[in-house]
Amino acid sequence: MATATVTSKGQITIPKVVRDELGLREGDRVAFRVLEDGSVIVEPETIDLLALKGALKARRKGVSLADMEDAIRNQKGRG
User: pTM to 2 decimals?
Assistant: First the structure.
């Protein structure tokens, strides 16, 4: 069984064998879930960016080059 010591700041170093088993690398986040029986589950909280594809919808369509040129011409005509 791997163990770790809690520092005065409440920090621990996750043992290498556990990091390797969870596939954790520097900068990864981990989630802690405390179960009703008091046991704790530690799991990676990493998200593949490709999994987020399509999660956000555009609020409006882009502007075409012709629309931008028209807007510039209209501004020049006012000045």
Answer: 0.53
